[in-house]
Amino acid sequence: MPRYGKIVVIRRNGIDGMVYPLTSTSCLFGRRTGCDIRMRLPWVSTEHCKIDINENKEAVLTNLSAVNPTQLNGAGFEQPVLLKHGDVLTIIDRSFRFEYPLQSTPKKRRSRSPKDETLQQVAEVELLHKNPSGAKSLDAS
Predict the structure, then answer these.
(1) CATH assignment of 5-99, given 2.60.200.20, 2.60.40.420, 3.20.20.100, 2.40.37.10?
(2) Is the pTM of this model over 0.85?
């Protein structure tokens, strides 16, 4: 069975609690009996939020509660958000940490070759020498 990551419950005292491995491409949080991670609190929505694994094996968090929105790293969000290793999602007063498996953390695709990145850095340094105020001009690439 593939493992897409895990959800770690963060206890109120800050110590890690139960661990839920993500072995399917969706994980539903809420009060409903059929939820993958069920919270039996009256102010938790029946379906509060979900984590879906996309085609790139990245975890995407979607809030499903209008009354008590899910928070990510202490802030609210409106659109689905890509999760990063170590992100903390909070539902009411319960917090959970998302972790990718170490061997399969998605890596950002490079938009440039290493040589292009070096040339870009050199160009930026030259630009700073020409314009010491630090203002950058717009790059057309």
Answers:
(1) 2.60.200.20
(2) no
Only one residue has tokens 């040589």, namely 115
59 vs 126, higher pLDDT = 59
3-state secondary structure the chain: CCCCEEEEEECCCCCEEEEEEECCCEEEEECCCCCCEECCCCCCCCCCEEEEECCCCCEEEEECCCCCCCEECCEECCCCEECCCCCEEEECCEEEEEECCHHHCCCCCCCCCHHHHHHHHHHHHHHHHHCCCCCCCCCCC
51-100 pLDDT per residue, tens? 999 999 999 999 999 999 999 999 999 999 999 999 999 999 999 999 99
